[in-house]
Amino acid sequence: MDPVLLQASDWQFVLENWQFLLLGTVVTVLLTATSLGLGFLTGFPAGAIEVYGSGRLQAAVSTAGVVLRGTPIVVLIVLFFFGLPLPRLGTVPLLEVDLKAFVAATLALGLRSAAYQAQVFRGAIQSIGEGQMEAARSIGMSERQAIQHVIFPQAIRRSIPGFQNEFTIVLKDTSVAFAIGLAELLTRAEQLYLQPGRDTAVMEVLIAISAVYFVLTFTTNRTLDYLNEVYAVPGGNE
Amino acid sequence: MTLLRVEHVDKSYGDEEVLHDVSFEMQRQDVEVIVGPSGSGKSTLLRCVNRLTEIDDGAIYLDGEEIHALDENELRRRVGMVFQDFNLFAHRTARGNVTLGLRQVLGMPREEAEATADDYLERVGLADQAESYPAELSGGQQQRVGIARALAMEPELILFDEPTSALDPELIGEVLSVMRDLADEGTTMLCVTHEMGFARSAASRITFLDDGRIVERGPPETLFEDPEHERTRAFLGELAGIQ
Question: For residue A115, with 0-12 CB atoms within 10 Å meaning exposed, 13-18 middle and 19 or more buried, which class applies?
Fold first, then answer.
């Protein structure tokens, strides 16, 4: 039998399983948060090292960035899951999350995001005029104080649009954790339509979870737009 | 009493010699104006005094101490600078621009720093703009904030690097008037400027720098009325003709 696209009974099926998909959404949101967090905590210092660092440290950071940006995310996630000596960490009840898979996915998504966030931040730092540093030094501030109090506060504000992109990309890319069976939204969607006799519901399930991804990216981007306005400084982006 | 002594300073960028055997002395409360054609080394000379640029040879003494023996941050706390392009901290209000150094460098408590900042903003006529961000201020106002920021650190000497060159003509007056007040109050100032009116009325001495060398140095009346060198006469005559 040819699957009939978009039939009422399949939408009914999606609705009946909303709790099952909601648990997947929770995992997707958690994985986005841990990955972006890791990306921020690693990417920020990395961007600063690329601008202000020197020698081996700078070379190492810059090389790591090139490798991470040049490797497909599915490859990274599978490599981290099977290649890293992570211990078995058990499974979170209810969410049915294998912690080892979650850690591997966070490392892959987080470090890759760090490589991109570092570039966002590096560009923002370099867009701050030389005169700002000179002015800070001219009143007796050390280079470190000048970076902390004059350069970074301006660079972070200029990084927000880049972070918004990065957020959207990471959120949607959590779906590649599907490749290691992590029970996030896409994996759970597949578990639904692979149930016996439910192959007609593939489209409905995928459209439903796409809507979830869209709502998540849209609302978060709006929130970040709002924060951008609240913390904006007149002329801060010139 | 000698505050600044510059002795036989040389500075090159690559093969290009920017300063050659420059020597001069300033007393406390002196207003020294440096004039010269563009590329003559005026700004470089200024920047050597607070070590934004390092000299190749020679020595510079601040109040008897060689500046390279001082901690560079300590030196810069004692020698303020006002920039051609203002260089106000774009993310901080006028008050925030002044308080940053007070808080971070002098370790002043917040309330005291804000009160001090407001005093200095008032001195430059900007008491009502304390909450404004640089982008909300005119060029003349920004430069006055720049002067307040330098003054607030209570430096022994302030360097002015073409403070009015980036301003529209109608905004130059307000900045020069603040500088004149400072001169009258006995602030020691080393100024690079093309404002001959200011040089004539406020300077204790004028130095004419050309091609990295001091051609002539003396009180304004001598340089304007009876310069020793033809080059000085030609240059000052040209500047005066423009204005």
Answer: buried
